[in-house]
Amino acid sequence: MKKTLIALCMLFVATFTVQAQEDEAEKQALAMEMASIELNMEVDTELFQKMSTNMYVSQTPQVMIMGMVVPETYENAKTKLEGNLPPEFKVSDKGEKTMNGVKVVFLKGTSDSPQGVIDCVVYCTKRDAETCTMFMGMSEVGVDQKYVDAINKAANSVIKKK
Length: 162
Known about the structure:
With about 160 residues, this protein is α+β, with helices and mostly antiparallel strands.
């Protein structure tokens, strides 16, 4: 399941970083560089272990939290989240709202995998004129509420007024 969570997460990341353009390699390199920017998320280290910059995983149950800076304008990110999703992802809610005084585009739903169903939440907010901050939380369906609360706390720590 851990591999499934990471693969699903990478699929969402690819939505933002891979485009059919002449400068694709340059854009991917920039995306990888931006992914290493520390976001200072509040993460419950009793529940999660750090895997890489802004990526935390729980082994049992399978839960993942990830944040990153993406090289997209807010409007481009919004467009991509609204229509460029993997076919196995079933949207339960999406749109734009204010969270902690900040405008965010969000997406909630489930993804089917051979190992089971995964709950997913994605938030994206404008960082500056050319970049966004993206947050993803993924978990096995039916995890203990403390994991859902930990995902929400981490999201709230990333999505805040500057």
